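User: Fold this, then the next.

Assistant: Folding the first:
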Amino acid sequence: MSERERWIIYPLLFFALGAAVRDKILHRVDAKEIYCESLMIVDQHDPTGQPLAELGIQRARPNDPTQMSDSVGMLRLTNSDGGEVCRIASDAMFQRLVGRQLFIIDDNKRPLVVAGVEQVPDMLLPNGDTTVTSQGVIYLNNQRLRIKIAPPLNRNPAPQLPPDASL
């Protein structure tokens, strides 16, 4: 290799090596755009590798009439145990946000409205233990709203027409 070739090849070699190890040294990657089907955020110190957040595609179920297209965008958040905390997806009928609690706060970060799920005792078992069930609750200004769902109306069934009757 001539000296002139060395002056061309070696700087290009060091430039390529520097570009290859840049993200390893800085511990970050800068990009203008990323194209992928799914982006998952994981805790590197978690041995299970369970994703804590996922931005991706939710495939539509073919027999669900509320789905507009074959796939929709989806954001899913999970806790460290793998339980789903929140899922945001789009469908034909309505936009939904599914979660266990919703807080509406003022400028001082005090909750004014809290809608969520509470565990309440359900039934006392013969051995003294109690079963627990989930119940939806709403708090306004730290006061629990005592809303009871009305029982279904007792309606008499419609009278049956004789088999030989005509309309």
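Now the next one, as you asked:
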Amino acid sequence: MTTLFQKLFRVRYQSEAAPAEAPATGGDAGAPAATSTEGAAPAGQEGGGEAPAENSPGTEGEKKPGEEGEKPGEEKPGEKKEGDKESDKKPEGAPEKYEFSAPEGTELDKAAVEQFEPIARELNLSQEQAQKLVDLYGSKVMPQLMKQQAESWQKQVADWGTAAKEDKEIGGDKFGANLEKAKQAMGTFATPELREFLESSGMGNHPEMIRLMVKVGAAMSEDNLVTSNEKGQRSAADVLYGNN
């Protein structure tokens, strides 16, 4: 092949160089054209250009478009995109049915649960989120509310006792004697259950309750019924709920 390329190139070179070597006017016609191989390009080259090298450096192993391989932005197996972890942490939302448990030492109020469940569902709270609110209410909020209510009621009972002592009809200087009449009426007509209720609830300190018992006791005295011989001023609770 090298000899063939050289022959072909030499013929082409000679045909291109012939016009330049034509004899001058008046010279010998038909003289053979000079042949020269000076400047001839090496075999395999045309016009001085280099033949492309086979498997030139830097191209070996390169993959053409469409061939198998990693594509830009292609997700690898097992690889999570940014933000996937956050999506994994999102609550699953409201369940088909909530199953609540009461904190230790407490009981669930069914009526309160029935009111709370639609709200939790509207807010799309998960079972875990809704249970946390139930636990918070049962262990923190409810005890605090009960404590405040108890303190408020105790203050109310004490205020009733003060109002009874200052009442114009049954209080003042007549308060001790009127308590004796109230005790007589309670001992005669009140059942043990009523006495317990009045004592535990504090309603026995209410001015109107004392007024009622005073009037009943006064009516009994007018009919010459036996009255208590206890002396000395005591509180309304002692008179109404003391031992007979």
